[in-house]
Structure formats: structure tokens, C-alpha cells
């Protein structure tokens, strides 16, 4: 396709102007608690989507219970950075790909990374900026030696973003000082040439290409008390630990290696199908993300799910703001009516593309909220929310399961976690197979635009650029002419460069 000449002129003019550049925008939800569980056992001879316990003979005892966190504030693991080692708590996030640590004083940080004290730090001379749906951070890229005290017995040189400025990123009281992005290089910032931590680990060591997460939340359980909000879990790096799950592991293919994208083929509330076109569930993607608290659903799916949940729990009346995540609901301690809230089931395409399996969660989608309830009350927030960037299976999903990120075989496994919450009559479950046809078609594909449409768009953009560039060029020329006539002195400095931001 030819690019219109006017557009080329506009681009050339833009390239000559001293406009500061920022990294590509990555829309993410605010960082919150996310369950950490994945399993990576070798395929059986029949490549079954189920793997029986005992598939791994490796001893991961040093990694069990290596996660800490608080409900809604994220799960973190201790890491050692630099020479001599500086120990920091790092949020485990399967929904991003940068390893970034606080490197400057911040009101919410008890400690931070001192690059000047590390003899092994190497500055890369590049900056990085990562915005989220809410919040952002920016910093400077470098490399340093990194190890995980309660992980593999290895040390490696990894890329590190030293966070120098942030806005609504760090969380007061969360006790973590950085983020470990475990997704693929395609979504790394500033671009995909920056090698993510796990890729560096694989390249420099013999650790297998798999990790698994068991996130043990402080959510729905008859034994829950508001004082036990600190949670834990396990991150098994390099394999699957059979002691962390019960039953069988069921695997769903990783559809695309950027986020951990999967395909949802059906959603039920209390066994009732939402009866939607399955493409709606994956519009515009469905991902497994330990760095997100909620189950986030596309608008149409969210509305249908809330309607079904509201109908199932209609024995009590809730304010409309509760379903939108804007209001809390509270009950006297020990009287939360868990039984009125329905089970939510997600059906995921299995490795046999004409079969699916079902993961079912109890009302752990009611998230306990600290520092609000009195000693006589338990208060909760509705942790299912609307999304404009696809379905996100966050902490409220992962906390019921042991989740295996089997990157080597491009699949994600689910089994019932040994620390899942349950009541007297119901339990989390992973069940299958369920038969279907062309389940792969449920995945969302970005519509392709033909060449004539692209040409039209290009001409329109060229015209818009011309309209905006003409007055901007006149202002820049006037500014430069004024600078020539009146050089800036010490007493008459003005920040005219802000015109170009």
C-alpha cells in the first residue's frame, strides 16, 4: 500500500521536531492480589489434557509457602538483587513482562533498591515508562545479579527497571517494593527486545520452562475472621508440586504468547448457561493474570453475569452500587450468608480442541475489605467487574486452584488447590471432558481491514496532521526566531519547550 505523499511530509516534519518520546501504552488494571498457581508436568504418551498426581519427581520443598501478601494487595516473593545482595519483596504478576523495583524513596516503601551500592549493577542508558489503567511508573533500565532465596539455587544477570517516579502504583501497607512480570517479551516495555526475567532464567540456567502458582487467599470460608487478612501461597519455579493440588490437572492451550491468553467457551452461574455467543467471552482476549484482583468481564458478559448472580442471591437486597464495586456490604461477624451466593463456572477449551473442561469457584468473588469493618462486622466488596480490554481471570479465580504455566508445551493447567476455600456443601472443582464443535472459533480475532479502507484512513489522517501541524509549525518558527533575537539570560528563563509536549 502506498503512503500518501502529504502524510510522508507530515511524518518527516514531526521527526525533525524535538518531541520527547514515551513508550507504547499498555493498558492494565490496577495491581491487586492475584492467585499464583500453575503446573508443568510432562505430557503423557497420549498428550491427554489431564495429568495425574505424581508427574513430577523433583523436590520443591524449599519453594513451598514462599509467597506472602494481603487480600486485594497482591502476592509477593522475596528476591535478592545486586552485590552484595539487597533483599526486596517483589509482586508476582503474570499479566506483565517487566522486572521493576523501587529505586527511590517513596512514602509507601520501607526499603528500596540502591543501585550505587551494588558492584554488579550495569546501566543500560535507556528509560522506560509503563502506564496502567490506573497508575504508572517510570524508571531507568539496567542489569544486575538476581537470585530467589526460596527458589531455584541459581543466580543470574537480569534486566531491571529502577523505578524513579510513580503514581498510584505502590500500595500503602502492601509490603512489596517491586514487580516481577512473568509474561512474554511481546508486551515488555519499552519494546519486545528487552528480555523478561523468566527468559533470562531459562537462557542462563537449566531450570525447566514452567512455573506454577498456588495462591491461598483470605476470602470465602466459614473459618475466616477479619483479623487473618495476611495470606500466602507457593510459587514453584521449574515444575509442578503434586502436594499442592488434589485430583487431576486439566490443561488449556496458550492461544498466543504475549499475555497468558486462553479461550473460554462457556460461562455458567449456578449451573445456568449465560447463553451468549462464545466469542463475547473472549472479546478482545481472555488472560490469566495474577496481578489483578477481580474476575473482569467484557461489558455484555458482565451485565449478563451480574443479572444471574443477583437473581440467585435475591433472598437479600443489595444496593446497585455493590454490583458496580462502589459500595460494600457488611454482616455481623460469622453471619455472612455464603449459601445464597452462586457458584460461577468457566469452561476452557482443552488440548483436544473439540473438548472443554470446567473450573467452578465458590463465592470467593466477595473480597473481604480490611480497615473498614468494626470488630463486630465483616465487610466485602464484589470482585467481579466490567472490562474494556477482555476477560481477566484474576485472583478471585486463581485462589481456588493450583495453576500451572507450562510454557514449554504452551498450555496452562488447573487443578483444585489444597488450600482452596469451601463450605459444608460445596467445593471448588475442575471437571471434564465436555464435548463441543470448533471450540477454537470462540477465540477473538481482530477484524482485517482491506487496502482501500486503509488508504482512505491514511488520507484522512494526513489531512488531520496537516491541519494541526500548520499552526504548530508557525508557533515553533516564531519561537526559534524570538530566541535568535533575544537569547535567554539567567533572569528571563521560560519553559517554552512545553509547547511540544
From TrEMBL:
UniProt GO MF annotations: aspartic-type endopeptidase activity
Source taxon at top rank: Eukaryota
Record key words, sorted: Acetylation, Aspartyl protease, Cell membrane, Cell projection, Cytoplasmic vesicle, Disulfide bond, Endoplasmic reticulum, Endosome, Glycoprotein, Golgi apparatus, Hydrolase, Isopeptide bond, Lipoprotein, Lysosome, Membrane, Palmitate, Phosphoprotein, Protease, Signal, Transmembrane, Transmembrane helix, Ubl conjugation, Zymogen
Signal peptide range in chain numbering: 1-23
Chief subcellular location: membrane
Localization (cell): Cell membrane; Cell projection, Axon; Cell projection, Dendrite; Cell surface
Topology in the lipid bilayer: Single-pass type I membrane protein
Pfam families: Asp
Peptidase A1 domain boundaries: 75-415
Catalytic activity: Broad endopeptidase specificity. Cleaves Glu-Val-Asn-Leu-|-Asp-Ala-Glu-Phe in the Swedish variant of Alzheimer's amyloid precursor protein
Family matches, as InterPro entries: Aspartic_peptidase_A1 (IPR001461), Aspartic_peptidase_AS (IPR001969), BACE (IPR009119), BACE1 (IPR009120), Memapsin-like (IPR033874), PEPTIDASE_A1 (IPR033121), Peptidase_aspartic_dom_sf (IPR021109)
A single GO BP: membrane protein ectodomain proteolysis
Family: Belongs to the peptidase A1 family.
Protein name: Beta-secretase 1
Record organism: Cyprinus carpio carpio
Amino acid at each position: 500500500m502506498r503512503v500518501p505523499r502529504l502524510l510522508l511530509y507530515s511524518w518527516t516534519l514531526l521527526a525533525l521536531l524535538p518531541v520527547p518520546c514515551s513508550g507504547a501504552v499498555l493498558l492494565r488494571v490496577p495491581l491487586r492480589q492475584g492467585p499464583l498457581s500453575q503446573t508443568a508436568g510432562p505430557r503423557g504418551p497420549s498428550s491427554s489434557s489431564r495429568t495425574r498426581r505424581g508427574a513430577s519427581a523433583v523436590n520443591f520443598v524449599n519453594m513451598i509457602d514462599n509467597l506472602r501478601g494481603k487480600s486485594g494487595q497482591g502476592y509477593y516473593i522475596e528476591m535478592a538483587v545486586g552485590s552484595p545482595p539487597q533483599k526486596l519483596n517483589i509482586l508476582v504478576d503474570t499479566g506483565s513482562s517487566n522486572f521493576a523495583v523501587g529505586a527511590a524513596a517513596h512514602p509507601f516503601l520501607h526499603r528500596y533498591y540502591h543501585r550505587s551500592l551494588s558492584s554488579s549493577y550495569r546501566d543500560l542508558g535507556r528509560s522506560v515508562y509503563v502506564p496502567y489503567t490506573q497508575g504508572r511508573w517510570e524508571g531507568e533500565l539496567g542489569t544486575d545479579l538476581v537470585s530467589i532465596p526460596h527458589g531455584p539455587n541459581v543466580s543470574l544477570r537480569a534486566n531491571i527497571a529502577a523505578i524513579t517516579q510513580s503514581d498510584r502504583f505502590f500500595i500503602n501497607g502492601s509490603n512489596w517494593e517491586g514487580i516481577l512480570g512473568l509474561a512474554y517479551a511481546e508486551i515488555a516495555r519499552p519494546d519486545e527486545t528487552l528480555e523478561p526475567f523468566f527468559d533470562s532464567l531459562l537462557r542462563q540456567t537449566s531450570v525447566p520452562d514452567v512455573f506454577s502458582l498456588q495462591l491461598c487467599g483470605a476470602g470465602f470460608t466459614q473459618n475466616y475472621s477479619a483479623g487473618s487478612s495476611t495470606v500466602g501461597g507457593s510459587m514453584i519455579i521449574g515444575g509442578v508440586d503434586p502436594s499442592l493440588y488434589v485430583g487431576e490437572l486439566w490443561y488449556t492451550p496458550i492461544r498466543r504468547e504475549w499475555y497468558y491468553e486462553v479461550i473460554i467457551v462457556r460461562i455458567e452461574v449456578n449451573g445456568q448457561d449465560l447463553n451468549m455467543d462464545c466469542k463475547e467471552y473472549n472479546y478482545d482476549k481472555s488472560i490469566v493474570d495474577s496481578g489483578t484482583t477481580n474476575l473482569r468481564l467484557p461489558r455484555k458478559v458482565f451485565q449478563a453475569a451480574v443479572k444471574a448472580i443477583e437473581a440467585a442471591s435475591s433472598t437479600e437486597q443489595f444496593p446497585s452500587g455493590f454490583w458496580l464495586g462502589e459500595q460494600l456490604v457488611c454482616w455481623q461477624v460469622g453471619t455472612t450468608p455464603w449459601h445464597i451466593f452462586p457458584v460461577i463456572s468457566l469452561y476452557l477449551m482443552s488440548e483436544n480442541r473439540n473438548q472443554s473442561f470446567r473450573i467452578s469457584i465458590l463465592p470467593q468473588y466477595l473480597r473481604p475489605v480490611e480497615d473498614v469493618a468494626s470488630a463486630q462486622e465483616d465487610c466485602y466488596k464484589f470482585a467481579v467487574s466490567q472490562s474494556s480490554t477482555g476477560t481477566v481471570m484474576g485472583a478471585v479465580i486463581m485462589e481456588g486452584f493450583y495453576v500451572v504455566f507450562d510454557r514449554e508445551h504452551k498450555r496452562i493447567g488447573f487443578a483444585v488447590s489444597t488450600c482452596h476455600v469451601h463450605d459444608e456443601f460445596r467445593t471448588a472443582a475442575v471437571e471434564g471432558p465436555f464435548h463441543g464443535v470448533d471450540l477454537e472459533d470462540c477465540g477473538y480475532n481482530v477484524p482485517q481491514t482491506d487496502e482501500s479502507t486503509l488508504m482512505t484512513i491514511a488520507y484522512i489522517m494526513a489531512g488531520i496532521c496537516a491541519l494541526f501541524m500548520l499552526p504548530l509549525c508557525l508557533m515553533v518558527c516564531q519561537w526559534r526566531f524570538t530566541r535568535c533575537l533575544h537569547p535567554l539570560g539567567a533572569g528571563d528563563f521560560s519553559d517554552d519547550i512545553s509547547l511540544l509536549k
